[in-house]
């Protein structure tokens, strides 16, 4: 029994149909960001001068994550060196792996700049402003998860940035001329490396939030269907 060869027309239709499903193009405006600041470590009180628990209100942390207007999926680079122990054409051999040391995150600011306050408090875990003592590394590093979503708001690809801390908080420009604009907060989030994060099965849903309280202008499409992470 012979199997008929597919025609060029059917091949084209099959190819076109893939872009009308969830297997079509990935869109950069469909994403989910989860920020996991350092947990409480009261042994750090001696170094930084006070007890700071950035996870004391997880709802605020999640709302800050929702206001992330722009973020970058970082890359990875393999360092190599010429292998001089072979005859003929040279070849490169890997001698190390390098990651981008930081990603830029832009947040839409609330009226009370709670996003800026949150990252200022995070930075405070790294130093004492009275004695200028520096805190312990493990006391001020956290994690950030970034997921790419499909048209059904399901997570299809994810990265987890390991050992993160807000290295810099960009200046905030104020102007009488900026009458119809909102303040944007740029955070340079330092991290050591990233690892692939397996997407959870199923659609992420809103839990415990009213997304209409978030600024709608220029917000990601994923805003309508995000989960509240209890981690």
Task: Describe this protein's structure.
The chain is 16% helix and 29% strand. With 231 residues, it is of the alpha+beta class. The protein has a single domain (26-74, 91-224), classed as Pnp Oxidase, Chain A. The strands form two sheets. Strands 1, 2, 5, 6, 7, 8 and 9 form a seven-stranded antiparallel sheet that branches. It starts with 7 loop residues before the first helix and ends in a 35-residue tail after the last strand. The model is unreliable at 42-49 and 202-231 (pLDDT under 50).
The proportion of residues in beta strands is: 25-35%
Count of distinct strands:
9
Structural Rg? 23 Å
**Residue ranges: pLDDT <50 for 5 or more in a row?**
42-49, 202-231
Which overall shape is indicated by the principal axes computed on the Cα atoms?
A: globular
Biggest sheet details: 7 strands, antiparallel
Order of secondary-structure elements: HEHHEEEEHHEEEE
Structural category is: alpha+beta
Query: How many domains make up the coordinates?
Result: 1
CATH architecture: Roll
Q: In oligomeric terms, what are we looking at?
A: single chain
Distance between the termini: 57 Å
How many helices in DSSP terms? 5
Percent of residues in helices = 10-25%
CATH class descriptor: Mainly Beta
pLDDT averaged over residues: 79
Task: Tell me the CATH topology.
Answer: Pnp Oxidase, Chain A
